[in-house]
Amino acid sequence: MESKEVLSLIKNLEQSKTNDQIVLDILKTLEKEVVPTEKLLRETRVGVEVNKFKKSSNPEIAKLVRKIISAWKDVINKNKLKMRQQQQQQSSSSGVTPSDNKPDGSKENSVSSTITTDANGSISKKVSKFQSSKTRNAKNDGVNTIIYHIKLRDNVIRALYDSLAKESEHPPNYILQLAIEIEKEMNKLNDIMTHEKQYKEKYRVIYSNIISKNNADLKVKITNGDLTPNFLVTCDPKELAPESLRKKLEEIKEKNLFNAQGATIERSVTDRFQCGKCKERKVSYYQLQTRSADEPLTTFCTCEVCGNRWKFS
């Protein structure tokens, strides 16, 4: 089935979404006649549209949608595996990998290294240093980032490679494998066939943090293997922020907690505490259990003279 025909069916599917019988007929047609390819699925977004009916109140529709999506994914994955095997056969027959040669035919001096992964799929951080006289990126390193032949995924791999390789001394094959693993985790979390928007959002968060001049430590941690691709993709975005920003956010959080709780909790005024700012002893306070039960209470103090606030445990 051609792209135009698929698009026509998608349009009819959208217009007839309240008619279960028509929806079923269209889905059955798609199941029988669509030969899924990455290009077709990307151009028509048929996977996204079909997936919208996954939570249909009609169990027959919901079941058929799951069957279609699962079948299409199986076909795509088999095609990917076949393509990878062909690429590996071509590389073995030529004896050259994409990172061996430079675009101009020259070779960079580098120490060879072995890329290994642990039981969790994390890339080993024990790699040799790589020196280059040019600004490091996929083009200058002679690295082929066309892995899946899907424009969006391959562009993400290239962007990740360029950002991680810049000013790095890790060899090209190591950086490439790292970029591939990160992108793979991204697609695993949000498959672009059905969740392209979320995939792009996750990519923007990771990429912007990697290239941030105020967050240089993050790139070092990633390339040294201190942060795994899985953690990078699944962690709270706040955990990727630079240390200074995390501290600032924590201070704001504590201040907001102080303000919110101080307004609702009854406070006692005492002369037991002295304000460190104005040295007066007219201080109101209250106590809360902010940590685990076996830890002491936290005391929140406010100077009734100058308004200065502090806490201690």
UniProtKB/TrEMBL annotation:
It comes from the Eukaryota. Residues 108-135 have a biased composition (Polar residues). Residues 271-311 form the TFIIS-type domain. Pfam families: Med26 (PF08711), TFIIS_M (PF07500), Zn_ribbon_TFIIS (PF01096). One of its GO terms (cellular component) is nucleus. The keyword Transcription applies. Residues 81-136 are annotated as: Disordered. InterPro entries: TF_IIS-typ, TFIIS/CRSP70_N_sub, TFIIS/LEDGF_dom_sf, TFIIS_cen_dom, TFIIS_cen_dom_sf, TFIIS_N, TFSII, Znf_TFIIS. Keywords: DNA-binding, Elongation factor, Metal-binding, Nucleus, Protein biosynthesis, Transcription, Transcription regulation, Zinc, Zinc-finger. Residues 1-79 form the TFIIS N-terminal domain. One of its GO terms (molecular function) is RNA polymerase II complex recruiting activity. GO terms for biological process: regulation of mRNA 3'-end processing; transcription antitermination; transcription elongation by RNA polymerase I; transcription elongation by RNA polymerase II. Residues 152-268 form the TFIIS central domain. Its main location: nucleus. Residues 85-94 have a biased composition (Low complexity). It is found in: Nucleus. Belongs to the TFS-II family. Necessary for efficient RNA polymerase II transcription elongation past template-encoded arresting sites. This is Transcription elongation factor.
